[in-house]
TrEMBL record:
Provenance organism: Fusobacterium necrogenes
Domain L-asparaginase N-terminal: 4-197
EC number: 3.5.1.1
InterPro entries, alphabetized: AsnA_fam (IPR006033), Asp/glu_Ase-like_sf (IPR036152), Asparaginase/glutaminase-like (IPR006034), Asparaginase/glutaminase_AS1 (IPR020827), Asparaginase/glutaminase_AS2 (IPR027475), Asparaginase_C (IPR040919), L-asparaginase_C (IPR027473), L-asparaginase_I (IPR041725)
Binding sites annotated in the UniProt record for substrate: 60, 91-92
GO MF, one annotated term: asparaginase activity
PROSITE patterns noted in UniProt: ASN_GLN_ASE_1, ASN_GLN_ASE_2, ASN_GLN_ASE_3
Designated name of the protein: asparaginase
Designated gene of the protein: ansA
Domain of life: Bacteria
Keywords attached to this entry: Hydrolase
Every Asparaginase/glutaminase C-terminal domain range: 217-332
Amino acid sequence: MLDKVMIINTGGTIGMVHSDKNDPNSPLRPANDWNEITKEHPILEKYSTNYYQFTPLIDSSDMSPEIWKDIARFISKNYDKYRGFVILHGTDTMAFTASALSFMLKNLNKPVILTGSQVPLQFPRSDALQNLITAIHIAGNELYGVKLIPEVCIFFRDSLLRGNRSRKIDATNYFGFSSPNYPAIAEVGADIRVIKDRILPTKKDKFYADITIDSEVIILELFPGLNPSYLKSIFEANSIKGVILKTFGNGNAPTNQEFLDVLKYIASKGIIIVDITQCTRGFVKMGLYEASAKLTDVGVISGADLTPEAAVTKLMYLLGKRLSTDKIKKLMQIDMCGEQTISQYNFLTTDFKDLHSANFEYNLDIPPTLKKEDLIEAVVRIKNIRNREKREEPLYISISIEGENSISTEQLKINNIIHANLPNEKKNFHAIFNHTIKSIIDKNNILKIKINSNMKISIESVKFSIFSEYLR
């Protein structure tokens, strides 16, 4: 049946009909079947489709992780039979479902297109017919002269958006969805114009559904005047495993000690705290600047430019895999399926805490994926410098980044060394390296972080963070 598209109806406005077909003012109810949905639109009968309807159909406000699993199972069972899939869905939680499916449907090489409408298909001025027909065209790809788009997407009005980048932005407007931090994959007018550089590459490995979800997470949004003790009380006696913390601006939060102590308490319970911005657009870059280092010190991790929908479903997915806390933290900060623009790789060592020396060297393995990405910046953070050998003299310190293989940094114009004088009251040092050290990463498998000073010192820890970008 590779000449057909499977339409999966979960519920929502698009498939609502009048309870009394002879009374246009009668209450709406979910349609009983495909024929009842399409009877006013015979054009839909011309399309090569099959239809499956969940029982019962639900308002999308009642969407749940269990239904996400059911959708993923159904697609997995029928994956080899159809050219693509269209999921009819209520608009309120469509972005959550699209995000969750993007993590569960592995090695996807077919379109999975979610669509719905602001007005039922049965109504004369509905947006539903265009949304549905265009979704069928995109899911059917070559059957209708459309380029293959092998990912989970949302189509609405005139834009095809990556599912895990999408948000509902309007409750009534026909332009109901947006993708704040990633451009549309296709623009639809008289033609369906697919921007090929924006779609995920096709996968060579076999498709499978990884149906793992643990929904013991919450989303918390900061506001001026929030009492930190209220936050603490939420976590004192429950099974919460993860928190999406919506902070101000580019990841800013209160810096008073009471608030930081509460975050430290939450993290000490093994609860993962992910920092995302409250803003519609923008990034969180934890640890890039010294101001945000206090949050990283108490255990908060960066959510980059994840939408709230993608952040919470990604965390649910990773928690469901029963990975270690450290592994989940690592994966939450690295792009898995196009859900975030910036990946953050963190390396931490405390091996030097009992050492008193003027020379330190930290070696780390370079992740293979990093070689495919564009490096934005890198940060070395030295925490809690103490036991200075000569307290009467200023501390002169230098940090350099080198590879296992010799390379002429002068010839390649690489900025790989930073110097600083630290007064006695300065306990931490934050060094930012620019994108030029990518030349070292590309030619090596091991990086060496070297710290040299003009006197013996002790340091609690060294953290090295790399911020990279892979637009796709």
